[in-house]
Amino acid sequence: MRNYICKTGTGQPAKDFVFFDYMNLITKVKEHETLFSLLKLSGPIVLANILQTAYQLIDTFWLGRIGAGAVAAVSLSFPLLFLIISLGIGLTLAGSILASQYKGMDNQRMINYASAQTYFVMLFIGTLLAAAGYYFAEPLMRLVGAEGEILRDSVDYFKVSSIGFIFLFLFFVFQSLMRGIGNVVIPTYVVLSTVFLNLFLDPLFIYGWGAFPAMGVAGAAMASVITQGLSALAGFIIIYRGKNGIQLSWKDFKFDFEFTKILVKLGVPASMEMSTRALGMAVLMVLVTGFGGMVIASYGIGARILSFVIIPALGLSSATTALVGQYVGAERIKEAADVGRLSAKLAFFSLTLIGGLLFLVAEPLTAFFVPGEERVIHNGAMFIKVMAPSFGLLGVQQVINGVFNGAGFTLASLLLSVLSLWIIRFPLAFILSNQTSLSFEGIWWAFPVSNLIAAIAAIIWFRTGSWKGKKRVGFNVK
What we know:
- This protein is mainly alpha-helical.
- The chain has helices at 15-64, 68-105, 108-135, 137-143, 148-163, 165-180, 185-207, 217-241, 257-289, 293-309, 311-329, 333-360, 362-369, 374-387, 391-406, 410-435, 441-464.
- 81% of the residues lie in helices and 0% in strands.
- The radius of gyration is 23 Å and the shape is globular.
């Protein structure tokens, strides 16, 4: 690597400037290496998340051919389904944090042990939540305001979807563990295969064919449950074979109170953070239902687009969590901070660009899902246009959450979500939709305002450096 020599006015080399430029060059090389690592990790994660979201988009596409009522039924179910899922999924994030930090410590025994323990705990939690979701399906749907035919369809969809919680959690464990050690390609292949299968199973179970009866809305859920089961099985087999960085051992599948406490300490704030988001969406749905079925369907379309757009941010967040976790495990805190700064910039500019493109195609995009429903198309497109300019800010918040999670500071992500959804978004949505002439469009406007405030708060918190003082995992077994 050559030195760049700056000269003074007398023509003599300025040694201080030589050193300064040399260090600048080193810094730029490191930034490029970090950017490459982020893209290498986040690319397959983004693709996998896109494919997972394709489950919902495929459902919406086929159900939209039945009518707005079918879309509304699934839209009502989705926030509550996500709420229940999020109660357990935070523990899978805890598994990813542990795997990444142990990877940074170069402790293969604890990577294997943490993986087995995460599987064991999530099997238990998934079974409990599956039973609870199935049993309380109808009361929950009534709680969010479902009535008549929409109530019947949403309950059917919710019950069948609940059965898949066990499979979904076990696949998330596989995916999180692999991401924690930096192996992000294999989970993508698994998701790709199951999404293609779901593409064919959806119309088969929704409309029926031959010996398969038409199940309507519940058929979309059944198709997803089958593919979720296959993906969970494939993931477990891949890890159990031990050829991809993790080797499971049956002797580690046992209740370990001390290790479970670590999972809970890391996972409960993460679960509450996700639950807070899901519950916020569910409460917003209660506001939406007061404006009728057409607005429910419009909100459902907009929410699905939002879930699709946030995928790059979540991919970068997951990649950031893995890299920061590995650096924290290796006690390289400066590099962890550099990852956070670079990832935040990448998230802001990329998602702002995506938001601009979606702003331009909002109406034809909405029409693709509900052709012929003019009011739904207009209102759904308006929702997308209002949200789109703030997508970059949403990305910044998610990536900084990834930094906090990688450092084991999951409580920070929870507090930022509480600020965004409960202190800002929901109260503002209620006031604008009920106390102003905006009506239901006031709910739309609450999204960009909350994204802006949450992003500012996340940046300030990151810059204080308080997350750097979190201790890495110290638990070990022989």
